[in-house]
Amino acid sequence: MKTDAVFDKELGAHYSKPGLLNRILSALEQAGVNLNAASSDDFSPFAEFHIGGAGATRELGRLASLRAGQLVIDIGSGLGGPARTLAEQFDVRVKGIDLTEEYCSVATELTKIVGLGARVSFEHGNALNLPFEDAAYDVAWTQQSCMNIASKDQMIAEVSRILKSGGTFVFQEVLAGENPEPLLIPVPWASDAGMSFLWTPKDIKKLIEDHGFIEKKWIDVTPKYIEEYRALAAKTADTNVRPILGAHLMLGDRSGEMRKNVVKNLETDRIKVYQGVFMKD
Question: What is the mean pLDDT of residues 31-43?
């Protein structure tokens, strides 16, 4: 059995390749992005690489009725795309935390470029041991970052701990579908099956409620986003014609194969995509 340290190292190698910031800056220059006048949307093709992209982030924020001034913890913040979008669109303050240290440093630099450093910050850390005081946040947010977490009970316990009473837990998550066949691998969150831990919608909902959360929204958004993701996968599959900006900057040339496998997994009901909003009782 792998130790936590070994698993974390393998996960870091999956998500992060050396020289990420320079690779991104070079691609932005090649794409004609003026960094002196850049906005978060300019970074979205690679910084919001969850299903639905920046549109899903904005929709989820509206679903959760985010309010100006709220303090949000973004668990699994990646390159900071959702955090910046939330700050711009909903006037909230966001603290991002991610297991991949390089992602945190790159997210910080990109956030400085768009002038959001005063409202959005990032810290290297683990979702199973959040380095924050009890009842510190109004909103706990995560978008497709829990697929790599085996100890979901501990993760939800930490979310409950750091949320204020009446606080909101908001997420978009890839969950197990009804087809019991093995997941087609690789996918964006896993190079091999040992990296992926998917719970069924029924089981994850029960776990959240068992930790004292009350359901506000619980939506299967698979039908809504599958066509959009299918088009994106087709667009990025060919390394010779794919867009300059995209998930391949982080995940390498296998990103096209990963996205095609996501489409196949969605089409065959091996996976589903859910959005949820729960209130801490």
Answer: 95
